[in-house]
Amino acid sequence: MTAGPRRLGFLLLPEFSMMAFVAAVEPFRIANRCAGEPLYEWSLYSVDGMPVAASNGMTLLTDASIGEDASEPTVFVCSGFNHERHTSAAVLQWLKWLAGQGGTLGGVDTGAFVLARAGLLEGRRVTLHWESIPAFEELFPGIETTTALYEIDGRRVTCSGGTATMDLALRFIAADHGPGLAMAVSEQLIYQRIRERSDHQRMSVAARLGVHNPILVNAIEYMSVNVAQPVAVADIAAHCCISQRQLERLFAERLGTSPVGYYLQLRLAHARQLLQETDRSVLEVALACGFGSTASFSRAYRRRFGAPPSRDRSGLAAPVGGAVNDDGSAS
């Protein structure tokens, strides 16, 4: 049990995820109502103390700027996919100061990027939104990442975002005031099961693609873990203990494409994430996704997304175009 209200701070960076933020705060508000007393208090911070617009365009008022000393012993960084654009030297300095005061620091959604840039995640186990994990690992290869919903490693807390922040908040409530209150809050949220830290962020391959053939699922998972150094279709087939012809027929029947075409789409999707979320050069991204040159990479990328890689690097993402041709000749 905690003595007095537990005080929390939330640093809102422009274009933060409103979903992740609200899912974090609402359980604490409901805990206060269920208990009939203020168990939790929170303050919102922005760089300049002014209102901050979320990624959905909605704007929230804040209580203070980062130029002021934070009295909360726990502060979470809430950011979105354009975190790098809004991570200033002042933000990093403030976070370092909080860490120096012995505070607990958390990152919600892509907030782990900000904490890592401040040098505050060395030797820690962290998680973040599944879509951002590849980019994070490219930028910070020395930091251990997981696909858990949230991680609590000493005075560092990271969360994958989305509704996972609700599970993290309920975990705090259970630790502070017992599982009974956490269950009562969960009931109020019409949240039937409080998920464990180790629960998966994503649905299984079978559920995502609507396929249940174990051989096809095995092949796709094998492709997914071999993006940087693509393996031959014959080797994928051997891994699945079937012939290459059988594998090609399976992809055509169930997914309407070839193994080569599907594999290429996986690699290009990974490349797009790296372009949008890291400062790696186009050549470095091409090599990280198994392309031998920028020329072949650019041809395949333009065919898939309708624009060259430089368009996404500038932050002007083009709409997704049609599927890549199945011949895979551009790879």
UniProtKB/TrEMBL annotation:
Keywords: DNA-binding, Transcription, Transcription regulation. GO terms for molecular function: DNA-binding transcription factor activity; sequence-specific DNA binding. Gene3D superfamilies: 3.40.50.880, Homeodomain-like. The keyword Calcium does not apply. Pfam families: DJ-1_PfpI, HTH_18. Residues 307-331 are annotated as: Disordered. Residues 217-315 form the HTH araC/xylS-type domain. CDD domains: GATase1_AraC_ArgR_like. SUPFAM superfamilies: Class I glutamine amidotransferase-like, Homeodomain-like. This is HTH-type transcriptional regulator CdhR. It comes from wastewater metagenome.
